[in-house]
Specification:
two-stranded antiparallel ribbon; alpha/beta; binds manganese (II) ion; ten-stranded mixed β-sheet; binds 3-isopropylmalic acid; 12 strands
C-alpha cells in the first residue's frame, strides 16, 4: 500500500528542495501518495492561517509529514516558528528530534558518524514564564525550562534503544549539570536509571560547553548524544557546520509511540536570500526523506538513498537531485 504523505513545502527554498526529495523517494521505488498543504509565512500573509486545529486534525490522518522550510522576512520572527513548527512538535507529540551527522570535520582525516537525540517537547521551548512592567526600567522577564520525569525518560530511553542497535553502543548525556542543578539532576538521575536497562550500552557525560569543543576537535568520540531541547538546537547547528554544512543536515521529529504521524524536515531554513537562484542544496531534504523512509519501514530504500547521497553532488538544486536519482538507477 502507498504511504500517505502530507507535504508542507513552505516558504523560500522549501518547496524547491521538497519537490526534489519526493522525486528521489519515488526513484528509490517507494510508493507514496502525497497531499500538499499550503502553510507557512506566505499563506499566513494571504489569509491569516498558520496552523488551525482543523488543519492539524487533517494532518493527524497521514502516515508522515514532509516539510521543506517555513518563514518569510515579511512575518515577524517567531510567529510561524511557534505557530506552525512548534505547534506540530507539541500537538503531535513529536518528542524525539533525531539529527544524524556523518562527515569529516575541518582539519580531520576520517569521517565521524554520530546522532543527536534532542528532546523536542519540553525545556525552555514550552513558553513558561512571563513579563512584568514591560517597557519600564523595572521590567522583569522570566523564561523557565520545563523538564518532566516522563518527558526526559522517554527521550533518554529512545536514545539507549537506538544506541543498542548501533555498532558502537555508546550514549553521551550532554547537559550543564554543574549550573542547572534542578533540571540537570533530573536528567542525570533518569539517564543513570535507564542505563541500567541497557548493560551493553556504554555511557558518558559531557557539559554542553565542553561538547562544543569536542564537536570541533574530537567528534569521533560520539555515537549517540542525548540532550535537552535548547542544548540540542544549538549543538545540532554546530553538528551541521562540522559535517559538511547545513545543506546536508537532516532531521526527524518523531512520535516513537506512533500515536500520530512523525514529521521530517531539513535543519536549514527557508533561505529567502537564495530563492530562485537554484543554489539551494536539496541533499538535506533528501536525507530527511530517507529518515522518513526508515520510520515507514522502508529501510532498504532509505539505505539506498543515503548511499546515493554519500559522495557530494555538484550543480543546481535540480542537477544535484538528478545526480542522486541517476546513482539510484545505477545500483
Ligand atoms: C530547528 C529550528 C527551530 C528550533 C526554530 C525555527 C523554532 O531552529 O529546528 O532547529 O529552534 O527548534
Ligand atoms: Mn535550530
Amino acid at each position: 500500500m502507498a504511504h500517505r504523505i502530507a507535504v508542507i513545502g513552505g516558504d523560500g527554498i522549501g518547496p524547491d528542495v521538497t519537490i526534489e526529495a519526493l522525486k528521489v523517494v519515488r526513484a528509490a521505488g517507494v510508493d507514496i501518495l502525497t497531499t500538499d498543504f499550503d502553510l507557512g509565512g506566505a499563506r499566513y500573509l494571504r489569509d491569516g492561517e498558520i496552523l488551525s486545529d482543523s488543519t492539524l486534525d487533517q494532518l493527524r490522518d497521514f502516515d508522515a509529514i514532509l516539510l521543506g522550510a517555513v518563514g518569510t522576512p515579511d512575518v515577524p520572527p517567531g510567529v510561524i516558528e511557534r505557530g506552525l513548527l512548534l505547534k506540530m512538535r507539541f500537538e503531535l507529540d513529536l518528542y524525539v528530534n533525531q539529527r544524524p551527522f556523518v562527515g569529516t570535520a575541518p582539519g580531520h582525516m576520517k569521517p565521524h558518524d554520530f546522532i543527536v537525540i534532542r528532546e523536542n517537547t519540553e525545556g525552555p521551548y514550552v513558553g513558561e514564564g512571563g513579563v512584568l512592567r514591560k517597557g519600564t526600567p523595572n521590567e522583569v522577564a522570566t523564561q523557565g525550562s520545563v523538564n518532566t520525569r516522563m518527558g526526559v525518560e522517554r527521550c533518554v530511553r529512545y536514545a539507549f534503544e537506538l544506541a543498542a542497535k548501533r555498532q558502537r553502543k555508546h550514549v553521551t548525556l550532554v547537559h550543564k549539570t554543574n549550573v542547572l542543578t534542578f533540571a540537570g539532576d533530573l536528567w542525570q538521575r533518569t539517564f543513570d536509571i535507564v542505563a541500567k536497562e541497557f548493560p551493553n550500552v556504554a555511557t558518558a557525560y559531557n557539559h554542553v560547553d565542553a561538547a562544543c569543543i569536542y564537536f570541533v576537535q574530537d567528534p569521533h568520540r560520539y555515537d549517540v548524544i542525548v540532550t535537552d531541547n535548547l542544548f540540542g538546537d544549538i549543538l545540532t547547528d554546530l553538528g551541521g557546520a562540522v559535517s559538511g554544512g547545513i545543506g546536508l543536515a537532516s532531521s526527524a521529529n518523531l512520535n516513537p509511540a506512533r500515536t500520530g504521524p512523525s514529521m521530517f524536515e531539513p535543519v536549514h531554513g527557508s533561505a529567502p536570500d537564495i530563492v530562485g537562484t537554484g543554489k539551494a542544496n536539496p541533499t538535506a531534504a533528501i536525507l530527511s526523506a530517507a529518515l522518513m523512509l526508515d520510520f515507514l519501514g522502508e529501510n532498504a530504500a532509505a539505505e539506498r538513498v543515503r548511499a546515493a547521497c554519500a559522495e557530494p553532488a555538484a550543480g543546481s538544486t535540480v542537477e544535484i537531485a538528478n545526480t542522486i536519482v541517476a546513482r539510484l538507477g545505477a545500483k
